[in-house]
Amino acid sequence: GFMSPTRPDFPLFGEAPPGLPIQERPGAYALILDEASRLAVLQLPEGWYLPGGGLEAGESLKNCLLREVREETGQKVTILWQLGKSGQYLANSQRVLFKVGSFFVCEMQSSPIESDAKIEADHDLHWLPLQTALTQLKHAYQIWAVQELSRFLSE
Fold first, then answer.
1. pTM score, two decimals?
2. Which H or E run contains 47?
3. Is-contact 73 51, C-beta < 8 A?
4. Cβ atoms of 117 and 41 closer than 8 Å
């Protein structure tokens, strides 16, 4: 008989409309706090996002995270601990992207931005209070991670 897909054991957001192909896109995303407990958030023309992105073939989550943060911010980070994982279905008319984000709490290394770092165009880094970040971030699966971090910090 037809097997229904099992629900993953992590929080899931969005809907996958029936009849569209689903492409799973695992990724690693950074929760970077400064001394004032503000969060690093990237403003792009289409919205606000956590630094990070999708895994390349054969790449580990941590190596992906370090590469993406460097590409997007020009900064090196130290990974402190893994916060958790969440997923979101993002559908357009042709297909559904199933974004599965693994979230890591990080800190910036104190070394200044390397002058040769190639920062991707249109990536503006902002430091936002957690509550502001929650209202700005575009995707629910990333908002979930910031809520988890906020809950952890207030304990």
1. 0.89
2. strand 47-49
3. yes
4. no
